Amino acid sequence: MTSRVLAVLFADVCGSTALYERLGDQGALAAVASVIDVLRGAASDAEGRVVKTIGDEIMAVFPDAAAAARAAVDMHSRVAQLPPFGDARLAVRIGFHFGPVLEKADDVFGDTVNTAARLAGLAKPGQIITSAPSVGALPPPLQEATRDLDALALKGKQEELRVHELLWEDAGDLTQTATRAPMRRAAEVRLKVMHAGRTLCVGPDLPVALVGRDRANQVVIAHRTASRLHGRFEQRRGQFFYVDLSTNGTYVSLAGQAEILLRREQVLLGGQGLLAIGHPSSDARAEIVHFSME
What we know:
Layout: E1 2-14, H1 16-45, E2 49-54, E3 57-62, H2 65-80, E4 91-104, E5 107-109, H3 111-122, E6 128-131, H4 132-136, H5 140-143, E7 146-152, E8 161-166, H6 168-174, E9 191-195, E10 198-202, E11 208-212, E12 219-220, E13 231-236, E14 239-244, E15 250-254, E16 260-262, E17 266-269, E18 272-277, E19 287-293
Parallel strand pairs: 4-6, 11-12
Antiparallel strand pairs: 1-3, 1-4, 2-3, 4-5, 6-8, 7-8, 9-10, 9-19, 11-13, 13-14, 14-17, 15-16, 15-18, 18-19
Helix pairs in contact: 1-2, 2-6
């Protein structure tokens, strides 16, 4: 066997079992085959090689983490553009991991392969899941399109692995050359965050502001239902996001819209609004964080 360092990617067609009931065997086989062809094409275009197809799943390898990330983004983009199969639209879930593998007779083996498969198993339809070591091997523009989800115990691994999501719509923008000028330069945009009589501005000088019970955070929440690191405000290319990292969630109210609950998710912020930490804003126990765009 030959030892190499590669990125291993698994992409799984979601909902294919139900598709057989809706379209019949021939129709479902044709639909899944169409998606597999799209996945193969995206892998090839990103300098990858499909090692094997296992039912409705492919396993592919790439020379580096960036190539795997580009392929994953392209796979989701291409699948999203496919016409529906009958009344069904198919999606894929993707996981990849970068590390040492053993290669023999065009197949690959080892812990990196097992880790990539388990990361794919964690992904939801339309999601890309990867690992902290893989994120560390990405170029900065692609790193900016990831978010840290949690440290998880994966089957067969003694230590927890930090798991990240690659936000593929953001990543797709980052991997292409901009064709139009932004309406406002990022340096001109600020998000004013107000809590407990204190105001701070998220922007070029403070691109990330942490929210939570730990006093090291920029926005400190007193209530015990808040996680030590509950969430964070982020600036990305002139836009602002709130990313929830908590156990009990964050209730987000944007001006003119109904309140939504975020739990391990993110939302694009605009105009003005408020965050209720751990409880709905109507609950007297909720600590409120107000924000507004400047």
